[in-house]
Amino acid sequence: MTIGVAGIAITPPGIKASGGVSAGIQLMKRVAERAETHMLVMADADGVEQDGALSIHRLKATNAVQRAGIGRVVPRGLVTLFWRVDFGAWLDKIKPDIVHIHNPHPPGALLAAARACDARGIPYVISTHGFVEFDDYATAFGAKPWQGPIIDRLIRAPLVRATRGAARVLMLSPEETPIFDGMDIAPDRLGVVPNGVDPWFLDNLDESDRIAAVARFNLPADKPKILFVGNHTPNKGIDVLLKAMTRMREDAVAVIGGGIRSPEEHRAMLADAGFDMASGRAIFTDFLSRDELKGLYQSCDIFAFPSRADTLPLVILEAMVSRLPVVATRIGGIPFEVTEETGALIASGDADGLARELDRLAADPALRRRMGTAGRQRAIDIFNWDRSAEESIRIYSEILGERSDPAPHA
Questions:
Q1: Would you give the distance in Å from CA 171 to the centre of its chain?
Q2: pLDDT tens digits, 247-279
């Protein structure tokens, strides 16, 4: 059976693509090698591009709060919840047999996409990028108690309604099952389609290219280097890493990758963590090019990811295939990625536990090598985009077969 597939990436426009959007594009690229596939990405301008066999349609999003002229007086986090595009008009043009939705932010746009599918009788599936974070938004992003009703109305409610209408929910790991038990999703509507590793990270840079890629960071040659890569948002736990660095016995340095969102937020984070940049125990890279990121993976010794909420982080897989042992939190799908053979897991917010594990690895190069080798093999064996695409196609066919089967006689 020939299947027409439409992928939809839900995202606020004009910002660096999230891991969920990046993962969705990676998966749809592999699906496009097996079925005719178009993908919509919410964007700040219209455009169409071809990425291999995948047609990516960037549609300009609009925002009701900004149109009303009150965007400057409404908190930025609230404004982002109101981005929308005309999903229905695009679906009418593409006419897919099935839709695959990626990323839940903003949840209202996720629900709008689901309703556009329902109005046209098109079944849809949802991959669960970001669901761990948005299922418990208050914990992930440090929301205040008074914000509870806003979270329930604008985040939790649309997330649950869209998910309940999905023909299948494609979890990134089995660890997510309790989330969907809490949404009353029947077990037979759950599947597991994990993220894969970007093959680009499998090969080393030439030594001269690696040195050139990381030159601007002035990495110390005589100290263990602990790498973090991610958005500088509260859920990522950078503050926990900074606290851990002040409590380590070993003389190590943290290399903290990712864009600094604003000087004010950055200063507040350092102050809250009680961290003094004059200590020389942290290097903030700000935005990284692709070569710089790869160069850092291949120049550092340990990968730390003390996130408070994450579903199945791509950066952990990239670190693993780069032979870095990983110290991360025991949340979301991270235990599906990191085992005791490949790293260590700590409780969320445990700066002392993070410091202990980082000390253990910083002091033992042989242990780092063993864990790094095991981690690379695990990532290659389990997290593969081609296998995930094949499983997605199988699930699409199953859903469409169910819809075409005649109803049984009473």
A1: 13
A2: 999 999 999 999 988 899 899 999 988 999 999
Which pTM value belongs to this model? 0.86
How far apart are alpha carbons 57 and 43 in whole angstroms?
Answer: 9
What does the DSSP 8-state code read for residue 172? S
Q: How many CB atoms lie within 10 A of CB 311?
A: 29
Give the chain's length: 410
pLDDT in tens, 198-243: 999 999 999 999 999 999 999 999 999 999 999 898 889 999 999 9
What are the strands of the beta sheet with 302-305, ordered from one edge? 282-286, 253-257, 225-229, 302-305, 326-329, 343-346
What's CA 337's distance to the chain center, in Å? Answer: 13
Q: How far apart are CA 315 and CA 374, in angstroms?
A: 17
> What's at 316, amino acid-wise?
I
Check: CB of residue 129 under 8 Å from CB of residue 311.
Answer: yes
- Non-local CB neighbours of 283 within 8 Å, separated by 6+ positions: 217, 218, 219, 253, 254, 255, 256
Contacting residues for 125 by C-beta, under 8 A, at least 6 apart: 98, 99, 100, 101, 166, 167, 168, 169, 170, 392, 395, 396, 399
Residues 6+ apart with CB under 8 A from 292: 213, 214, 216, 285
| Domains delineated in the chain | 4-196+384-402 (3.40.50.2000), 199-382 (3.40.50.2000)
DSSP letter at 299 equals: T
- pLDDT tens by residue, 108-135: 999 999 999 999 999 999 999 989 887 7
**Count of other CB atoms within 10 angstroms of residue 340:** 9
Residue 305, SS3 per DSSP: strand
CA dist list (Å): 66 to 61, 71, 223, 343: 11, 5, 48, 45
**Contact residues for 277 (Cβ-Cβ < 8 A; gap 6+):** 270
Per DSSP, the chain holds a count of helices (H) and strands (E) of 19, 16
Q: Inter-axis angle of helices 290-297 and 314-321, to 10 degrees?
A: 60
